[in-house]
Amino acid sequence: MLKLASEPQRGFSFENCQRNASLERVLPGFRIPHAHKTGTTIAGLVFRDGVILGADTRATNDSVVMDKNCEKIHFIAPKIYCCGAGVAADAEMTTRMAASNMELHSLSTGREPRVTTVTRLLRQTLFRYRGHVGASLLVGGVDFSGPQLYSVHPHGSYSRLPFTALGSGQDAALAVLEDRFQPNMTLEAAQELLVEAITAGILGDLGSGGSVDACVITGTGAKLLRTLSSPTKPTERPSQYYFAPGTTAVQSQTVKPLTLELLEETVQAMEVE
Length: 273
Hints:
This protein has helices at about 15-25, 90-110, 115-130, 170-180, 185-205, and strands at about 40-45, 50-55, 60, 65, 75, 80-85, 135-145, 145-150, 160, 165, 210-220, 220-230. The chain is of the alpha+beta class. The strands form three sheets. Strands 10-1-2-11-12 form a five-stranded antiparallel beta sheet, with helices on one face. It has a five-stranded antiparallel beta sheet with strand order 5-6-7-8-9, with helices on one face.
């Protein structure tokens, strides 16, 4: 009977970290992959009647803009929404699994999910993967205990705050929120402040851009506001450019024929009833 060479040890394992450090010492040109900076600005604040969440709409891959109209405000429950920053796929799938589990929880208990329950589920999921799921989340919602706003970080830590911001543009957004936030704000004042905070993140960070999306959550339900504001409008060309054929000279032209060989050909008849 085969036996294990060594018994598995409990707790955290840093063998891969030690292996990577040894490879860097042995191989001069080898560099281990590091975490990439992702561009996003998400923010949220608690006002008199509920919670308002906001996000920009730009999705980037390093220095390339991949999507100009990306949805970063995700549905969790009828009165609970979540903003995601970091890796778009990780944030999308993490929130989608949380929404599915909350639906099953509601069907099992016969009650609406609580914001603390959603936050606990998300931080336990992120902590299980030790930060390898790169999703920074803002959870906002209203339940029987009132409006609540939580920030959940990729390693599983969390905080409950009256206002907060995450992402690469969080510094500019937090500067606006810390300067103008007041308790028991009206919906109009809170919405105006949120738009200014996200706009500051968009204008101060190259990874953030597009328009401003918002989600207003109150005790009666949630309302998703797409393209609430567009701080960066595309520039328009003053005139059209027309170039006649032959304007740019062709320096050289080479035609290489491709030799193709048919290796296998299969014909399958379709059954028609």
